[in-house]
Write a structure and sequence with these properties.
The protein has 246 residues and is an alpha+beta fold. The chain has one domain (4-192, 238-245): Aminopeptidase, CATH 3.40.630. Helices cover 24% and strands 30% of the residues. The protein is built from seven helices and nine strands. It has helices at 34-39, 43-46, 83-96, 120-134, 156-159, 172-179, 198-205; strands spanning 4-8, 51-56, 59-69, 103-111, 139-144, 183-197, 213-215, 224-227, 232-245. The relative contact order is 0.16.
């Protein structure tokens, strides 16, 4: 069996062409976040040292992205309710404005389906922590998407209180972070916002979107809000801020 090698895009720029087509198994509707679509691709350009690439026998099998930003400061006094979207916006804006970052946020760890269940998520997070620490940052934040959440109507604030007998979160992805040394801070209630026409939502999900009210979409963490009269639907996803002191 070949050994999985985890390095950064800065060290292995030959993998840059493969990034666009790498699929981490996200549902189609989750690929429509406008902030992510506008800025996520810039990570490889602006912050290649923050983009982890994992290869198995030369094949790209996992990606990890983080982003540096300034936090806290006089205007950013608390972790943002806008979670993932805001972390991405802060990082790109701070780079554009020449600000010196003092913290970083995880943005993504995506693993090819063929390599799930091998503990690679733990390895990727541990490598991300070490990489960020080696850059001189003392804190890595993460707006975690608790994808083990099964009941879209259950409040996220309630879900994150659920623990196993060993005291660790019932959610697998939150558990990875806590076992790595992360501390659950709070819910980011509007971490990703995806709003579009009903026709687009029908295309993304295969659902009719023909009644005003809540629509339960597979793999969505909360219901999608549908408004037939005005012709749109909106998904506001909560994530969970986790803090890693390095």
């Amino acid at each position: 069996m070949s050994e999985i090698v985890i390095t950064t895009l800065a060290e292995r720029p030959e993998y840059r062409p493969e990034l666009k087509d790498f699929s981490g198994g996200w549902p189609k509707f989750m690929q429509q976040d406008p902030t992510g679509n506008a800025l996520m691709g810039r990570i490889s350009e602006l912050f290649p040292q923050h983009l982890l690439v994992a290869t198995d026998g030369g094949e790209l099998v996992a990606l990890g992205r983080s982003i540096p930003f300034v936090f806290p400061d006089e205007e950013r006094t608390a972790l943002p309710a806008g979670g993932w979207d805001t972390a991405l916006l802060w990082g790109v804006a701070d780079h554009r404005n020449g600000r010196t970052p003092n913290a970083a946020s995880a943005l993504e760890i995506s693993i090819r389906a063929s390599h799930l269940g091998r503990g690679l998520s733990h390895e990727m997070l541990a490598t991300m922590r070490r990489t960020v620490q080696a850059m001189g940052f003392k804190t890595l934040y993460a707006p975690v998407r608790p994808n083990g959440k099964q009941d879209p109507r259950q409040p996220m604030t309630e879900y994150i209180q659920q623990v196993r007998e060993d005291g660790l979160p019932v959610d697998p992805w939150l558990r990875v972070h806590v076992k790595a040394g992360g501390k659950i801070i709070e819910v980011a209630p509007a971490s990703m916002v995806i709003a579009s026409s009903l026709d687009n939502w029908r295309d993304w999900t295969g659902l009719p979107f023909d009644e005003t009210g809540e629509v339960i979409v597979p793999k969505a963490l909360v219901p999608v809000q549908c408004n037939v009269e005005h012709g749109y639907a909106a998904y506001v996803e909560p994530n969970v801020w986790v803090q890693h002191d390095l």
